[in-house]
Amino acid sequence: MGRIVWQDYMSIDQGVIDSDHKKLFKYLSDLEDILAAGQGKEAIQKVVDDLVGYTNEHFDREDVLWEQNGADNADLRDHRAKHQRLRDMVKAYIYAASQDAVQVGHNLHTFLSNWLLHHIVHEDAGMARKIGITAQKK
Ligand SMILES: [Fe+2]
Ligand SMILES: [Fe+2]
What we know:
Layout: H1 15-36, H2 41-68, H3 73-96, H4 101-130, H5 133-137
Helix pairs in contact: 1-2, 1-4, 2-3, 2-4, 3-4
The structure holds fe (ii) ion (FE2) (2 copies).
């Protein structure tokens, strides 16, 4: 997958979450730039750490937002499980990073770009619609 660029259709009309998503894309771009520049293991691991740390922060923030805005329990459980599954998969990539940081950086970039794009456009947007955030804001 090539560079992931923010576009308006990706907005879920929720400023905090949209800006988190934009920041996640920025970390993915940084990772892509570092890989393209042929930088070493340390530089790759630094941006991967930042990306993973921010992903975790974002999931926590988002889960609280859904809960505080009246998402029903089944939806909350389901969405949290998706976030947790991603955390587990990313951990597996990071574990492999001790073997070949460049390859892992490429794999993680492709995997996370696809996952995030799909999750934002379908699952985050679906949650936002369900809890009526969009309707309340306008
Ligand atoms: Fe999200
Ligand atoms: Fe989410």
